[in-house]
Amino acid sequence: MAGTERPAQFNIREAKTHLSRLVQRAAAGEEIIISKAGRPVARLGPIPRAVTPREPGRWRGQVLIREDFDVLPPEVAAAFRGQGLTPGRPCGLRW
After folding, report:
1. pLDDT, tens only, 43-61
2. Alpha-carbon gap, residue 28 to 62, rounded angstroms
3. Residue 86: which pLDDT band, with cuts at 50, 70 and 90?
4. Domains of the chain
5. Where are the alpha helices (DSSP H) in the chain?
6. Among 65, 66, 93, which residue's Cα sits nearest to residue 80?
7. Does the pLDDT at position 20 exceed 90?
8. What is the gyration radius of the CA atoms in the chain, in angstroms?
9. Cβ atoms within 10 Å, residue 92
């Protein structure tokens, strides 16, 4: 929601009639204000997602990183410099 944008406001009757639609909008991140006799009484909005802290080493033993992982082949390095590009092959590699 933008800083200057006001939340959509619905009276209780409209909210009851269109509740599933309003819940979809709230789940998508929109804030909805429900009012009674023109006075705001409730707010409908998304539930913040719980942030799970990272656990370093969780993938240990499940991923194999080869010794030559950081070695950049010369043709790839040349492609990054715009050299050796082959027409019809976007990256210039021949595989």
Report:
1. 999 998 888 888 898 888 8
2. 35
3. low
4. 8-44 (3.40.1620.10)
5. 12-17, 19-27, 74-80
6. 93
7. yes
8. 27
9. 16
CA distances from 48 to 1, 57, 59 (A): 14, 27, 27
Pairing state between β 39-44 and 32-36: antiparallel
What is the DSSP code (8-state) at residue 52?
P
Classified as helix, coil or strand, 11 is: strand
* Phi, psi of 39, rounded to the nearest 5 degrees: -110, 125
Token readout for 17 is: 């009639």
pLDDT tier, 90 (very low <50, low <70, confident <90, very high otherwise): low
